[in-house]
Amino acid sequence: MRTGSLAICFFILIANHLLFLANAELPDGTAIAALKKEFQVVQWPVHEPNYCLWLGVTCSSVDKSVEALELPHLNLRGNISLISQLKSIKKLDLSGNLFHGSISSSLGDLALLEFLDLSSNRLGGLIPPSFGSLLNLKSLNLSNNLLLGGIPDELRNLKSLQEFQISGNNLNGTIPWWIGGLSSLRLFSAYENNLFGKIPESLGLLSQLELLNLHSNMLDGVIPESLFFSGKLEVLVLTQNKLTGSIPVSVGLCKNLSSLRIGNNKLTGSVPASIGNISSLTYFEANDNLLSGELPREFAQCPNLTLLNLASNGLEGFVPVELGDLKNLQEFIVSGNSLTGEVPRSLLKGKNLNKLDLSNNRFNGSLPENICGTSRLQFLLVSQNSISGEIPPLIGQCVRLLELQLGSNYLTGGIPSEIGRIKNLQIALNLSFNHLHGPLPREMGKLDKLVSLDVSHNQLSGTIPTEFKGMLSLIDVNFSDNQLNGPVPMFAPFQKSPPWCFWGNKGLCGDPLSASCTSYYDAESDGSHRKASYKMVLAVIGSGLAIFFTVSVVVVLFTIRRGRK
Length: 565
Prior knowledge:
alpha/beta, 19-stranded mixed beta sheet, 4-stranded parallel beta sheet, 35 strands, 565 residues, Leucine-rich repeat, LRR (right-handed beta-alpha superhelix), 4 helices, single chain
């Protein structure tokens, strides 16, 4: 028995020794062994010496040298400079880990490297100038780290670079003009940094450029006309900078442009009619600028448009009827302008419309009777306009609405009970600052998902229905400045609200108001007594009249009989 055990142990020792010898013959064995110890990759097996079979390791079919090391999102940490020993590596992906400290300049020695992704770590310091030696590099991603300084001029040598991503860092300085000389560049992303200065005209020389994302920096100057000359651009994001000037007319040259986002700048002038030439346009955002003029009807020539956002500008005139032809439009946002006319009925016919935001304009007329021509409408925001007339009862068909803002208009009539059918209403129901009158519909108590209710500054009367206790999600309420009376129902959202949410209603009483409901109940009791007394008097009078009538009939009959005799 003991002899058998010794034989097994001897066999294991021999096998391990043979495996060790096999591993030693692999060209990157020493380097990989060091990485295994440093990174502590738990997915790498202990008893498998052939690293070509390990997770994330790809070897050459010729000499078994490591050509790719792909270890993303494994919570790894350690010294990445050890990777510089893998001289044959072409692809290195360590994204989404916990590496910190400076990026080792030794990575610049990996002459065959084509793909380098160190994004989403905690790497700081400068971008190593030695990266300028990676002449075969096609993709460089250093996004979402803690990098400082500028873009090193040494990177101008990366003529094969197709993707350059450095977004989400603390980089500063200007965008170098030489980036326009990286003739193979298809994607340049440097958003969420501290870059300043102008967008280089030289970027227009990038004939292969498809995506340019520079949002959330401190860039100033104009949007270069040259950006659109190649016609290859598909995505342009320049939001949240300090850009001035107008939207270039040359934007119409980019037939494949699907996303144009230039909001939160200081752009002036009108939206060029050439925008209609971009048949692939899906997203157009130019909100929070200083744009003027009318809303171009040429947008109707962009059949794929799903989002149109021109909020907070100085646009005037009417919403073109032709925009109703945009069958794929999901969000139409033009709040904070000076647009006039009636609520555009043509837009409401869109079957995919999800959000209609016309708030803070000069729209007038009445709300369309069938305001929910689209069953997908979730956000209807038309507050701060001059809309008059009554709230149409068919608003109850807006069953998917999450938010309804009708405040600060000239609406009259009562609140339709059908509003209680909008069971998905959740974010807010705002009917404040109108001329609504009549009672609060008890059906509103069925809105059990509603968080915010504001009916202040109207002429609503009657009591607050006890059915409102069914609004189980309610947090914010405002009933102020109406003609409501009676006790505030005992309901936590009401009692937790500040008293001013109920002020301006002389007849309201009870917590959270200081006014006691004693006089209300006494008056109600007195009223009941008066009604009872009145009924009693009526009963006595009725009984007296009945007796008088009976006696009179008897007397008349007796008189008639006596006369016959």
